[in-house]
Design brief:
alpha+beta; 2 domains; 9 helices
Length: about 375
């Protein structure tokens, strides 16, 4: 096991004109020994570039990378004691499963007995014992991904690096492999850094999650910490399925109550009474546009015969629950409702909000008000 420390890490891609494009812009991140850290964010946020710099596959433009207390900026990838699992498996098609898993150990001159022991152990963990003589073309996508994992496991590295390894699998296999990777981490206890754009993967696998955007870190926290206490509009909207609902409006004090009044500057929509604690966070901002964030599970919706507070746009049964997409007149938002609920498109709904977990954000900066 080994800690990984990134200090002011920068990657700039040169351009013909100007100072170049900064794909990674001054990242500072400490990953504890044995931690499962997930780097998550939209395409182009710098997460894969960061991982490749840790691996030594991408030259850094500035800052330092330390693995197990040793700065590795000038250390070749093969000497960093890391193992990387790629999105496309990168298996040798002419080799058997055994040969693919053993190849790296053979290059490092391990004894045949030690290679056999490590391959057998990894194959047992990954349920590949019956496939060791097959070639990759005779395997399913999930089996190929397990072979790629096995090839990394037999190395017994200080750090595992995963670059969107499940994105080529179907939905059922992705869920199964998420579970296997989590069990693998618990068994090995090795430091793992995992890159994904899928926030569901991040939430279910990581000890901590690092959210990136435009090459910068927005927030680092455990999964529930990100979900319950996002630092910005972007994090609040990126983490969670369905994502958090956002209502733009202003605060008003009426009869000793703090009201959030939805408005676009010309029209007004929902009027939502805020709990005292939430109202205090927006104190003194009565004329400023704020954003109220409410999770779908905190929206209570009931179909009504008349107009109601909102109209039904879409009704999506998902099995254990249903999602009803509503329109307030100014905002589209989503409520999680019981599976037995029935909403008719175009009809009205009465809406109530549970605001104990709601947040107010500055509309201009996106920062949460605390």
């Amino acid at each position: 096991m080994a800690a990984v420390v990134l200090q002011n890490l920068v990657k700039t891609y040169p351009t013909k004109q100007g100072p170049g494009v900064r794909a990674v812009d001054g990242i500072d991140l400490e990953i504890a020994s044995g931690e499962f850290m997930v780097l998550v964010g939209p395409s182009g946020c710098g997460k894969s570039t960061t991982l490749r710099m840790i691996a030594g596959l991408e030259e850094i433009s500035g800052g330092t990378i330390a693995i197990d207390g040793r700065v590795v900026n000038a250390v070749a990838p093969k000497d960093r004691d890391i193992a990387m699992v790629f999105q496309n498996y990168a298996l040798y098609p002419h080799m058997s499963v055994y040969e693919n898993m053993a190849f790296g150990l053979k290059m490092r001159k391990f004894s045949r007995a030690e290679i056999d022991r490590r391959v057998a152990e990894a194959a047992a963990w990954l349920e590949l014992e019956d496939y060791l003589e097959r070639r990759p073309k005779a395997l399913s996508g999930g089996q190929r991904q397990r072979v790629a994992l096995g090839r990394a496991i037999v190395r017994q590295p200080k750090v595992f690096l995963f670059d969107e390894p499940l994105s080529n699998l179907d939905a059922k296999m992705r869920v199964a492999m998420r579970r296997e990777l989590t069990k693998l981490h618990a068994r090995l206890g090795t430091t793992m850094i995992y890159v994904t754009h899928d926030q569901a993967e991040a939430m279910t696998m990581g000890d901590r999650i690092c959210v990136l955007k435009d090459g910068r870190i927005l927030q680092v926290a455990p999964p529930l910490g990100l979900y319950q206490n996002p630092s910005s509009l972007f994090v609040a909207g990126f983490i969670g399925t369905p994502p958090m609902n956002f209502f733009r409006g202003v605060l008003r004090a009426e009869a000793g109550r703090s009201l959030f009044v939805e408005t676009d500057g010309r029209r007004e929509g929902l009027r939502i009474e805020l709990p005292a604690a939430l109202g205090r966070r927006g104190a003194g901002r009565g004329s400023e546009t704020l954003v109220l964030g409410v999770r779908p599970e905190d929206v209570r919706a009931v179909p009504v015969a008349g107009a109601g507070d909102a109209s039904v746009e879409i009704f999506e049964p998902t099995g254990a629950e249903a999602h009803v997409h509503l329109q307030s007149g100014l905002t589209s938002f989503v409520a999680r409702v019981p599976a037995a609920a029935r909403f008719e498109l175009g009809r009205g709904a009465q809406v109530e909000f549970e605001l104990s977990g709601a947040h107010l954000f500055d509309a201009a900066t996106g920062a949460v008000l605390s």
